[in-house]
Design a protein that fits this description.
This is 3-isopropylmalate dehydrogenase. Keywords: Manganese, Metal-binding, NAD, Oxidoreductase. It comes from Gandjariella thermophila. One of its GO terms (molecular function) is NAD binding. By secondary structure, the protein is of the alpha/beta class. The protein contains twelve helices and twelve strands. Helix 7 links the parallel strand 8 (185-190) and strand 9. Helix 1 packs across helix 11, helix 6 (165-180) crosses helix 7 and helix 10 runs antiparallel to helix 11 (315-333). It is globular and about 50 Å long. It binds adenosine-5'-triphosphate and magnesium ion. Adenosine-5'-triphosphate (ATP) is lined by residues 18, 22, 79, 280-283, 285-286, 292-293, 296, 340.
């Protein structure tokens, strides 16, 4: 039972570097996919973020951005180049991290699918890494509880890792719910043989949650063994759930195994909200030249549509998500690509091609 036919309001935060080029390209694709799926268009709400917001508001994440986002269904976040910010902004939490933490977006969802015609390391790869986003050794950057790192003397550095039962349970539910919409398999990745308490708790809570999903097959691997299994047979995995640092590393590996780190999309989600964000950065070296590849943010936008569709039981939205992905895939496969993929298309030209493909697909 859902709210199909509703008109969603989505924030759009262009960000730095190539952001103002690739984010509007992704909006065009989302619009085209919704149209093709017969769904109502979204209302886009542009919000200040990043370097431009520092100049205008004195901070990369102004209060008006946070209060407006709180009222929206989701948003598309462009990349940020916080290394280029003036102090004190450079040494603070990155602006993307600040938004993630403010809204407690605890699950980072990173699909790795070998596109037709892509040079995948393992052909047929079609998996999703669900990474816990607030705990583990990265807790200081993200979490409510965060203890972070410290140096008791100039020669000793210490980092804490935090794992909590509720923190693991919620991300495990995200993974198992997702598996039910895919191929009904979840793989838990941990290092419980060494990190007996922390990684052990992660594995055990995931196993407990699995009992609520008798229809979903579950197995678990140590992180080191998992890298080997992925290189040899990534095509056999469906949903992989893991803690923060392992997920950071594994999701880059899986994207590349699928042949596509450069075009990897991702979604950061809580139960209430989702934020589409490409896996790549602001690429300042090519900004302003009209050659940036918008595929990753397009695919992230498609993930946002799929998430909204699942959350609201809104099938046309999920159909639109599918059309957007298929449009990007077919366009690249047909030989229209930006220079990073060896093609000659500009950002706008690539977006034009994807929009045209989508209008022919449905
Ligand atoms: P961050 O610290 O923000 O993750 P990074 O150091 O990983 O940034 P990126 O900004 O992702 O760096 O850029 C890495 C390289 O990939 C650069 O040479 C950049 O031009 C290229 N690149 C990244 N994204 C794109 C894109 N969408 N289209 C084309 N090239 C890109
Ligand atoms: Mg990077």
């Amino acid at each position: 039972a859902g709210t199909a036919g509703r008109r969603y309001r989505l924030g759009v935060l262009d960000g730095d570097g190539i952001g103002p080029e690739i984010v509007p390209a992704a909006m065009r694709v989302v619009d085209a996919a919704l149209r093709a799926a017969g769904a109502p268009g979204v209302a886009w709400v542009p919000l200040p973020f990043g370097r431009a917001a520092i100049d205008e508001f004195g901070t990369p994440v102004p209060d008006v951005t946070l209060t407006t986002l709180a009222e929206l269904d989701g948003w598309v976040l462009g990349p940020h180049d916080s290394a280029s910010y003036p102090e004190p902004h450079r040494s603070r939490l990155t602006p993307g991290g600040a938004i993630r933490r403010h809204f407690d977006l605890f699950a980072n969802i990173r699909p790795a699918r070998a596109f037709e015609g892509a040079r995948a390391i393992v052909a047929g790869t079609d998996l999703v890494v669900v990474r816990e986003n607030t705990e583990g050794f990265y807790a200081d950057r993200n979490t409510r509880a965060g203890t972070g790192e410290f140096m008791p003397t100039a020669d000793v550095a210490i980092a804490h890792g935090i794992v909590t039962r509720p923190g693991v349970a919620r991300v495990a539910h995200t993974a198992f719910d997702l598996a039910r919409r895919r191929r009904n398999r979840v793989t838990i990745v941990h290092k419980a043989n060494v990190l007996r308490l922390t990684s052990g708790l992660f594995r055990d809570v995931c196993r407990e949650v699995a009992e609520d999903y008798p229809d979903v097959a579950v197995d678990d691997y140590h992180i080191d063994a998992m890298t080997v299994h992925l290189l040899r047979r990534a095509d056999e995995f469906d949903v992989i759930v893991t803690e923060n640092m392992f997920g950071d590393i594994l999701s880059d590996l899986t994207a590349e195994i699928a042949g596509s780190l450069g075009i990897a999309g991702s979604l950061n989600a809580s139960h209430e909200r989702a934020m589409a964000q490409a896996a790549h950065g602001a690429a300042p070296d090519i900004a302003g030249r009209g050659i940036a590849n918008p595929a990753a943010v397009m695919l992230s936008g498609a993930m946002l549509l799929d998430w909204l569709g699942a959350r609201h039981g809104d099938d046309p939205l999920r159909r639109a998500a599918h059309l957007a992905v298929a449009g990007v895939e077919r366009t690249i496969c047909d030989g229209t690509a930006t220079p990073d993929l060896g093609g000659m298309a500009g950002t706008g030209e690539f977006a034009d091609a994807v929009v045209a493909v989508i209008s022919r697909l449905h």
